[in-house]
Amino acid sequence: MGKVIRMGEFFRRGFLESTGEQPSLFEWIFSTDHKRIGLLYLYSISTFFAIGVTLGLLIRLELIAPGRTIVGPDTYNALFTLHGVVMIFLFIIPGIPAAFGNIMLPLQIGARDVAFPRLNLLSWWLYIIGAIMALSSLAGGGGPPDTGWTFYLPFSGETTTNVSLAVFAVFILGFSSILTGLNFITTIHRLRAPGMTWTRLPLFVWSLYATAWVQVLATPILGITLVLILAERILGLGLFDAARGGDPLMYQHLFWIYSHPAVYIMVLPAMGVISEIIPVFARRPIFGYKAIVASSIGIAAAGSLVWGHHMFVSGMSDTAILVFSLLTFIVAIPSAVKVFNWVATLYGGSIRLDAPMLYALTFLVLFSIGGLSGLVLGSAATDVHVHDTHFVVGHFHYVMFGGTAFAFFGALHYWFPKIFGRMFNEKRAAWAWGIMICGFNLLYFSMLLVGLRGMPRRYYDYLPQFAQLNRLATYGSWVLALGLLFMAVNLLIALRRGKHIGANPWEAATLEWTVDSPPPPENFAVLPTVTHGPYDLEQAGEP
Amino acid sequence: MNSTAQHHDAEGAKLGMWLFLFSELLLFGGLFVLFAVYLQRYPLQFAAGGRELSVAFGTVNTVLLLTSSMTVALALEALRRNRRRLCESLLGFTLLAALLFLVNKGFEWHAKFQHDLYPGSATLQQAPPGRDVFFGLYYLTTGLHGLHVIIGGVLLAWILALVRCDRINGASPTVLENGALYWHLVDIIWIFIFPLYYLLL
Questions:
Q1: What was the pLDDT predicted at B170?
Q2: Which of A113, A223, A238 is the closest to B132 by Cβ?
Q3: For the structural domain made of A5-526, what CATH number should be given?
Q4: Predicted confidence (pLDDT) at residue A3 exceeds the cutoff of 50
Q5: Could you give the ipTM of this predicted complex?
């Protein structure tokens, strides 16, 4: 392929341009360029997200009315298990760090690549191998896993479905996640450009840094927990078998020692994205930079000590419940610090309501609803009533979808022009956003309500009094899916036909906006010397 | 693609290795947590299980690993002083110790199986609850550790090959430094396993 010539004008395709040395597919799947690896992640993560959405839509369709609607109870169990596994391990954990972190981290700190480019490529390959294994557990053998994404023992030790394959897949995905975290920490320590001091790091980088530590320190616990499931299933060790002296509760502890911090692996980078978008579109420097940094570290640290709040009704001692409940409330403090800082940044700003900002503002609202409903669950007394109901499902979808996924979409719209050098249609982007928030709230607010009224989660069938809210939730899921589709189509059109734009369309002051869009393969011809903070917007380059 | 300076950041490579070692420590950490909880629940059964383990085998393996940890450190020092032959033989000794450790472990496990001490065996099923858990943890922890000995051994063998063909030398010892760090990890985990399981009273 030669250079693309359009309207007589030489058009730069930066790192997207083929070098012609290898077949074009190999140039991508064996590339060690962080931007290409990031895009590989973005494409694969988006594909798995689409699969996860489809599974979710099927669950909602089954629940539109009491009794059997489209699938039998066993298939239903498989649906919610796979929906969880795909969304958690294939979409939301790698989502922002592996895709946008990979592309933007070196650009934002003024480096030419991450510290270990080949390891980075290995991480993507491990991710793909894990993903293929997880999805292939759908077919063949004993049928798709039916344990829920938490793989609770003793059931996961006994079921004849393909649990071992799914568990091994998640083990590999965890390994990929550790390697990414390790790579990012080393990159941030070693490859900052001259003048890029720790207090000049963009907040997205800070959030990746905090996340990476959680990835490195918490994920191994998931690894050993999964090994233990395999040991139960294959070797019959009986470490969690009450009849042989084991304790199934110990499995839950080990599982949540990872899986609660994992929630912060999911949400911290999202908060980093919001901290990037809000100052740029409010045209004000971020309020309380150091407080936001400290709260990221605080969330990562305190969030590692609260796993027990998933187990309030499991038969744990009252002392443990009290301590875990208290610690859970403590995590709310740094989270709230962030929200206050974002709101204070908006105050007195000249706010531009472009698509990235719409998503960022939505994050504020939805994450706050999610966070506050989390306090209902974190308080042991109220948790007893709503534990294992749809209230929990509603709560974590507000945090994970309303929070992280909306930040993911915000990041997608914010950095789309940088990555591809083209602008999407703003009007259609806003419409897609509008449709999505309507569908989202219809879907998940109905879940919160039906959960408060006592509908248990993961049940195949339900009592007639829950029918109306369930029907509303299913309608909401259709509206939400429509909005998602609309957004995807808009971006896909922009990939081909979007208007070409310059280096800095949003007039932002971080380093990625000083290079061409799309960035050249080497990022910076000369490594930059940083002389101002990431949100000194009067220093921003020309659009 | 990248400037060579970024590919040869020795400090960065060591930092990455340390982070990886943290994650390895936490992997074993999960098993030590289980050990702590079950020890507190079944102190008598764990003590009885500990008496069934062979202190002789454990001690020999401890000596082997500690010595190999020393030789790998000496190999690194030899490489730094550009004494390649010495470095090679020290690495060779380390590998030999690793191999002996595994052979020893094989004999030890074999003896346990002969005494009908393995998960789900008739003897353990009749024993009071807790004994089974002890041996389950014993096999899993020492097995996972043994796997790390194998990985470390393969890593050091590869490094030995690199030293032989002069791909790493006194000017660029980072790969051996990282390999030695990994080997010390294997060692230090054993330093915890040995007293917890074998010297339990």
A1: 85
A2: A238
A3: 1.20.210.10
A4: no
A5: 0.91
